[in-house]
Design goal:
The structure is a single chain. The chain is an all-beta fold. The chain has two domains: about 90 residues; about 300 residues. About 0% of the residues lie in helices and about 45% in strands.
Length: about 425
Amino acid sequence: MTVRYWSGQAILYEISYDTGTNTPVVGETLNVVGAATETCVVQAWTVAGGAWATNNATGKIWVYNASVAFIANFASGDDLENTGDALICNSTSEESLKTGDWQVAGNWGTGEDPAVPVADDTVIFDGRSVIVPSDGMLDSESGATAQCTYDLLHFKEGWAYGVGDATEPLCCSPDKLIIDGIGTYYILCGKDDQSTNTNIDYLLINNKSATVYIYSNCNDGANLAEFQEVHLTAGTLYLSFYSVDTDDQGVYVDELYLAPKDSRERNITVSIAKDCYDVLNTVATNVWMGGGTLTCDSQLGTVLLCNGILNYGTDLGTTPETDLNITALYQFGGAFNWYPDDSDGDAYIGLVRIYAGSFLANASTNANRAKTLGGGAGNDTFLFSGAKMDLSNSRGNITLTSGSQLFNFGGTLTLDSGADITLTYDTI
């Protein structure tokens, strides 16, 4: 395992050379021989052949802080010397701008022979650079098999600049991905192409000033790129729909954990877009929620709500969703707001246990969409003392699934006026 540090510099140029005669020094200023105003500063270099000691080194050199005259006039064949007039290299190629390019070794260290991270490396972003990676992050680049499966990708607290953007998120498949820094991060779970299965085992988001968008490079009937565990202790997270490449699909997260550090619930916000489930296996995300605010427009598996606000459904306008179902809801506190915009009018929660907190379906949002409680015989709704369930949406379209029952163990239940209730006792 090798540790690689992102070290990108602003206006970084790559230059190939054929004859290196004196070893360069990191941070020293070079100028074009015979042109003292055409200057640049050494970042890193490689030696592909020969040696500096024998005056025949060949390879690449990366420079930054280039002067206006250097940028305007440097050309193939120019020679570079240091301020002491010692020739560093000659027979150079014309400079090529490589600022923010993930695939350029000169952005990954200083001195001789830096290298782009590869599989099993530890990749670190800290305070040594202020340049945001913006290129070289496609599934065929940073997502290539030889690169993407890092042991750890860590954006440390000193990193304040995020990574990628909506048009080119960082494609990778590390075992662990930790975001302690601030900024906006665009992360695409993927490998090679949109037909290759892969996963990110563990993602931790741990800064209230971090905004993170996650995507799956493939999630269809044939292939899946998934986040297995996502843990959010502080920050803003978007489970997003990826529509940049040939195939469009939502991200899939197997297990989502919301656990506000220091009990600061306002520091956690999550939004789940449409179609964010495992399409290949028809499996939805499980949510374990200890606080914060989560808004969701995709189907969910098991939901454990202990605190915070879970808004299930928004007004999707002209593009409502289908299958906005929840397998099971266990509520021990907080507020659950049930307003799915399901165009089929058959959204349901299979099994419901409300031990504490409030379960609300009484707002006008999507009130026209019919909904059912229960998943058939044995999948019932329990409402316990101290808990509140309000189903009075003035539409009378929230019902029990055939074979399911609602048991009230002392909770507060509110229904629409005129609701037809059948009372039975001691049935459990």
